[in-house]
Write a structure and sequence with these properties.
It is a single chain. By secondary structure, the protein is α+β, with helices and mostly antiparallel strands. The protein has a single domain, classed as outer membrane lipoprotein receptor (LolB), chain A, CATH 2.50.20. β10 and β11 form a beta hairpin. The chain has a 12-stranded mixed β-sheet with strand order 7-8-9-10-11-1-2-3-4-5-6-12.
């Protein structure tokens, strides 16, 4: 579950670059160009987790309390810098992820996605626009619901690999469209980069 949580957290950090950028279809999904906060719940067959989300014009911060040992984790996505930072508050350390390379590794470039606007639907009193997304190789697909500010309020995706199918749903509650503290989207002072595996092994070698 811990590995799945990390993968999904990274997915939501990369999400703007995956589905909000120049898909090859008549319809496109507009990116939210606003500031907001909310509580995001992600549900999979393996379990669920909840994040506090802060967003400011493409920049995003996700914060989550881990069930084990009261640990917390935060991810800052900076598409403008093409990086995401995974923060480990207890260790005062961070790991940097190259979003450009991560997008390539995902194997799901925007050009491989067909997007269709399918109508509107009211969620929690908010009139949303509903979009259908399908991978051209039929390996995955689903729906996303956007608020009038183009904020993703709900997602429902199904992927398949061989005979195995996996479903992931997301909902955003307690939405507040308001200015966010700019410091939320910067590396905190005093944090050090996590050593690479190569450097860690080098330090373990006898001198």
């Amino acid at each position: 579950m811990k590995k799945l949580t990390y993968i999904l957290t990274l997915f939501f950090a990369m999400m703007p670059g995956l589905i909000f950028s120049n898909p090859s279809s008549a319809d496109t999904i507009p990116a939210p160009d606003t500031e907001y906060s909310g509580v995001r719940t992600v549900v999979t067959a393996e379990g669920s987790f909840t994040q506090t989300v802060h967003h400011s014009h493409g920049k995003e911060r996700n914060e989550m309390q881990m069930q084990m040992q009261g640990m917390s984790m935060a991810t800052i996505s900076r598409p403008d810098k093409k990086v995401a930072w995974q923060l480990m508050p207890m260790q005062k350390m961070y790991m940097e992820v190259d979003l450009k390379n991560a997008n390539k590794m995902s194997g799901n470039a925007p050009d491989d996605v067909t997007i269709e606007k399918v109508g509107s639907e009211v969620l929690d009193g908010i009139t949303t626009t509903k979009y259908k997304l399908v991978m051209k190789d039929k390996s995955a697909g689903g729906f996303i619901w956007l608020s009038p500010e183009n904020i993703p309020l709900k997602m429902d995706f199904l992927s398949k690999e061989g005979n195995n199918k996996s479903r992931v749903t997301m909902s955003l509650k307690n939405l507040k469209v308001e200015p966010q503290d700019a410091a939320l989207f910067e590396l905190p002072q005093g944090y050090q980069p996590m050593p690479s595996m190569g450097n860690m092994m080098k330090n373990l070698r006898p001198q």
